[in-house]
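For this section, I looked closely at the sequence of one protein beside the tokens encoding its backbone, which the following lines show:
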Amino acid sequence: MSTVKSGDSGKTFVIESAVGDDGSVTVRETGTTTTHHVVDYADALVREKLAARPVGTTVRLALAPADSAGEEWIATRIKPGAPLGLGP
């Protein structure tokens, strides 16, 4: 697990794929086609909470880059609530 902290206040994402055996998951920023490949988590609780949500669920996440290219991400926090009416 990573210890990276994010200054991101948390955006809303749609879970595009289930959390895989390797822990990775793809999320899409709502209202866009921008996807983020999450490859690590701040702690086991963040991973467990994300893994418990079904594909298509809207979730507020704080992400931090896992690499300098910005192709892989670390989920640093799951924020409470999600705006109503957002989804796939």
In short: The first strand starts at residue 11 and ends at 15.
